[in-house]
Design goal:
With 489 residues, this protein is an alpha/beta fold. It has 17 helices and 17 strands. It binds 6-O-phosphono-beta-D-glucopyranose (BG6).
């Protein structure tokens, strides 16, 4: 199946259409796919939110959003006009049964041909159930209407189950598309290609040869305008439960029977269920949480988290976990997962450290080989390995890097992850979305961490904004004789 063709005409009904996500990600993503010829001109984007806006006022906001979030070289007036023609607006509170449903029905009914109907929930997740119920009661959910659920799906297992139940009453599971935008990243999908299309990697991808795996998603930005959301969430819920565990699944899963959605998801959920639960003892040694204090980022002074908030908080802006997977393939291999705001650099990457060769053939023992999969920025990969040092007649070794930059290799624009995911939902192509059991298994594994942190059983560490994180995280790896990637030469 090729996904590059134009999709069928669709109606994208967005709940939360005046919010940051819609403006920053959803509208620009659909615009880009229009420029690529993948969106038919008859498609419609129907924004809904509580604000009493006229269609023309919403179109103006949409234009402003494109101006801001589409690269200026890609902002084409004619295409923007075509795009805005597709944009409609209905002032509606999706969580209320007595709201302006008639308005939505009317827009939906004005069409000359069949449209695939997709509802996108970009609201607070606790409204997902109510919106689904109202859509159903209004008779707006057709047999193949799809619903896209933005993360977070709940704040713990119980709330996730409630949301899944609430939505599941009105949408069949195969019509529910739970977004995890990390799966929309080309470089994350590439993990599957790298592992299973290359015998070199496939053959060594196990505890026999791999010593440790690091998965990092670090950001330079702080909590930006999202403090209210973030302070209720924290790095563990915001990044680990979803994005980083998904990446871990792709790194660790067994070869799926096929690339069909359920085969890949079956393989992923097995990983999640095989994560060794953290217990009272390991919670203290295998989890680090921290908040940034004041520091400096690219020469500019920045405030600490608590100063920004203006009040006390028990929310972590940094998380590092040590996970193990109880399968024969990964026996005793530590997976270090970390994510943070206000780090020294923006970097999402997977670092695979191989065991050093035990050979005594050379005067010095070979260094460990290290494979770095750069998810972003500078998408690509590098592989550090040993060659003979040509300046050394005693068979001395030299460490060198094979480096592939995808930008140089493909010379294409790297699409935002949302672009393809939005159209995959129209296509009914679910492989890059999360199945219900995956979400729930991920919450199950992080629950003991959330609970122990909630009870302050693990002290809140600190790190200066603009650093690589707290000393405690360095020590966690040192206990295993490991170091974080930025400390490797
Ligand atoms: C979002 C989180 O899911 O992912 C944000 O809510 C975070 O806090 C963002 O900034 C990071 O995404 P990316 O694609 O920039 O790594």
């Amino acid at each position: 199946m090729t996904n590059c063709h134009q999709v069928a005409p669709f109606d994208y009904v967005i709940f939360g259409a005046t919010g940051d996500l819609t403006m920053r990600k959803l509208l620009p993503a659909l615009y880009y796919r229009l420029t690529m010829g993948q969106v038919p001109d008859t498609a419609r984007i129907i924004g809904t939110a509580r604000s009493p806006l006229k269609r023309s006022e919403y179109q103006t906001r949409a234009r402003d959003a494109l101006k801001r979030f589409v690269k200026s070289d890609d902002f084409d007036e004619d295409t923007v006009d075509r795009f805005l023609e597709m944009v409609h607006y209905v002032s509606l509170d999706g969580s209320k049964p007595d709201s302006n449903w008639e308005g939505l029905r009317e827009v939906l009914s004005h069409k000359a041909e069949e449209h695939v109907r997709v509802f996108y929930y970009a609201t607070a997740p606790d409204l997902y159930g109510a919106i689904s119920k109202n859509l159903h009661q209004e008779g707006l959910v057709t047999d193949d209407s799809r619903v896209v659920l933005e993360k977070p799906i709940g704040i713990d297992l119980k709330t996730a189950e409630e949301i899944n139940e609430g939505v599941g009453q009105y949408f069949k599971e195969n019509n529910v598309f739970r977004i995890d935008h990390y799966l929309g990243k080309e470089t994350v999908q590439n993990v599957i290609a790298l592992r299973f299309a290359n015998p070199l990697f496939e053959a060594v991808w196990s505890a026999e040869h791999i010593e440790s795996v690091q998965i990092t998603a670090g950001e330079v930005v702080g909590v930006e305008g999202r403090a209210a959301y973030y302070d209720n969430s924290g790095a563990l819920r915001d990044m680990v439960q979803n994005h980083l565990l998904q990446v871990l699944c792709l790194v660790a899963m067994e070869k799926p029977a096929s690339l069909q959605a359920d085969d890949v998801r079956d393989a992923k959920v097995t990983v999640l269920k095989s994560l060794v639960p953290l217990d009272e003892k390991t919670l203290k040694t295998s989890t680090v949480r921290a908040q940034y204090t004041k520091g400096s980022i690219k020469g500019a002074k920045v405030d600490g988290y608590l100063d920004e908030l203006g009040h006390e908080s028990n929310t972590e802006t940094y998380v590092a976990l040590r996970a193990e997977i109880d399968t024969p393939r990964w026996k005793n291999v530590p997976f270090y997962i970390r994510s943070a705001k206000r780090l020294k650099a923006k970097v999402s990457e997977i670092v695979v450290t191989f065991k050093a060769s035990a050979t005594e053939l050379f005067p010095s023992r070979p260094e460990k080989n290290v494979l770095v999969i750069r998810i972003q920025p500078d998408e690509g990969l590098s592989y550090r390995f040993s060659v003979k040092n040509p300046m050394d007649d005693d068979f001395g070794l030299w460490e060198t890097d094979m480096d592939v930059s995808f930008e140089r290799e493909f010379a294409v624009r790297y699409p935002d992850a949302y672009e393809r995911l939005l159209l995959d939902a129209v296509r009914g192509y679910p492989v890059l979305f999360i199945r219900r059991d995956e979400v729930e298994a991920a919450w199950k594994w992080v629950a003991p961490v959330m609970n122990a942190w909630g009870r302050n059983e693990v002290p809140m560490a600190q790190y200066a904004a603009g650093s690589w994180g707290p000393e405690e995280a360095r020590q966690m790896l040192a206990r295993d004789g490991q170091i974080w990637h930025e400390e490797m030469e």
